[in-house]
Amino acid sequence: MKKTLTALAIGATVLTPVMAAAADVKLYGRAHVSLDYLDDGKDYNEVALSSNSSRLGFKVDHQINEDLNVFAQIEQQVNFSSGSEDSEDSVDFATRDTFLGVKGNFGQVKVGRFDSPFKAARGPANFFGDQVGDIRTLTRAYNHRFDERNPNTIEYKTPKFAGGFTATAALSLHDGTMIDTRPPVNDEDQTKVNEKSQAYDLGLNYNAGHWNVAAAYEHYAEDVSRGERDGVRLAAAYKLTPELNVGALYQFTALDNGSGTNADANVFGVGAEYKLTDKNTLRGHVFHRDIDTADANSTLLALGLEHRLDKQFRVYGNLAAMLNDDNADLTPWSQARSNKAGSAQGVKATGETVMGLSVGMRYDF
Predict the structure, then answer these.
(1) pLDDT band at 63 (very low <50, low <70, confident <90, very high)
(2) pTM score > 0.85 for this model?
(3) Long-range contacts of 220-228, Cβ-Cβ distance < 8 Å, separation of 24 or more
(4) Fewer beta carbons below 10 Å: N end or C end of the chain?
(5) What digits encode the pLDDT tens for the residues 26-58?
(6) Nearest to 337 by CA among 36, 113, 56, 5
(7) pLDDT digit string, tens, across residues 271-287
């Protein structure tokens, strides 16, 4: 961890003045922590602190000429509850969205490691992002991993078309951080190294008037982590009144030869948020995961109240529950949080109604 902090300090000290001299540079971040009570419905019931996708980053946007801008971002996850996300000796840097790109009248092209179009497509219905009750506890369950930040990616996004449409296409060239150096099985395979460790994404967005709609398709080839798989997602939000926003999501995912908890799965549900006052928002959602395996479905319910002291600082309280069938063992707290207790901590969620109560605060800068 000391090495990681040293790298961050050096990066902030050395890179900031250099980049600032050449471009418009923004230092930004998020500090998001919560105090959680987690109960698996059986023997586990504990209170702990959690850091929830807290981050520190640099953004650069530099105009080359009237028709071309270059932009870049470096973003690192920071753990505000313990100082380290994983091991004490972790030296990872730029663990979150990190990329370099160009943009102009043609749209934009960027390369790096960042949220896939499929992951971004949950946005309209994502009322509890990075909190207890996050929708990803269902959409990213078991080996159905599609809400990913894929490495080695090239992405093209169109300019905004008349009416409010944009389209995105992305190709992740290979699964690992380094080119695959495994020896080929035979001479014929010599040119096929990495050929089957790619991911493909297509996304379509519509944002105009009261509507915010996103659709995406994603395919992972057979040699990627967790195997070959396909996913389709559709999410939409509609602002019924200035105070009331409603959203819904449908997702279908399939693994090649998937079975048990990795059989074909549908996730669907609805959510809403209502501004009680300018500073207070009530939100809730209910989502169901239906899987082609007997007694392996799960239902997620969440209810939360948020109070904003200003545009940058908010506090909130959430109550979430996961209702598991006899062969399902999901929890409502497993995503985007350092406090994601599982079987290693003694959680036994199979067939149980699992509860999480969280009180948190978030500061964006």
Answers:
(1) very high
(2) yes
(3) 221/195, 221/196, 221/197, 222/196, 222/256, 223/175, 223/196, 223/197, 224/175, 224/197, 224/198, 224/199, 225/145, 225/175, 226/143, 226/145, 226/255, 227/143, 227/255, 227/256, 228/255, 228/256
(4) C
(5) 999 999 999 999 999 999 999 999 999 999 999
(6) 36
(7) 999 999 999 999 999 99
